[in-house]
Request: fold
Amino acid sequence: MRTLCEREDTRTRPASSPRALSCRWKVRRAIPLVLVCLAMFAETNCGKAGTPPGFTTPSPPSGATTVTVTVQPSSATIALGGTQQFEATVTGSSNAGVTWEVNGVAGGNSTSGTIASSGADVATYTAPVGLPSPPTVTVTAVSQADTSASGSASVTLTSGVSVTITVSPASASVPTGGAQLFTANIAGAGASGTGVTWSVNGISGGDSTVGTIAAAGEQNGSPMALYAAPPV
Reply:
């Protein structure tokens, strides 16, 4: 501190002299300046000491490319026993291979259906013969390059049968003891066979009170039945 005081010995001067007061003011001012410089040195390498000229802090390496998988179609409705082809698209990797699953089971099973690869990114799903509960399954493609990456498609399973039956004539007036021939017209996707059960007032085959009905062959593939009214 003798430099700041211009190398004067303040002990030879009274403490209240202007020269001594000026020296003490300089000392008090110098201490905060020293502390500020030390703080700046800690945070910003004050004066850049120890840093080679032209030195540049290297940038952190960029993160790895994220692998993603998408499945098309993203949803499908398939009849029991039916098939559906799915295709997986892998991005972020040169390896387009995937492993196919149904409800989390590689290759599927007889309950939820099976899936078999027919190429690096294509597979065919075969629905089960019985309707599972619930009647929906998930088809998933898992990336072989990154098993944490996957894509899925939702599959709704249906029985494949939607049948409607109409009876003609739709109405008839039959006298006591009389008879009337009826024809059942069966239509709808998945309808197979022409077998029907005839009833009168909810009674299979009818009875003596409401009349009876019995199968009477077919006409152009449509089943027929003869209704006989009660005698009284």
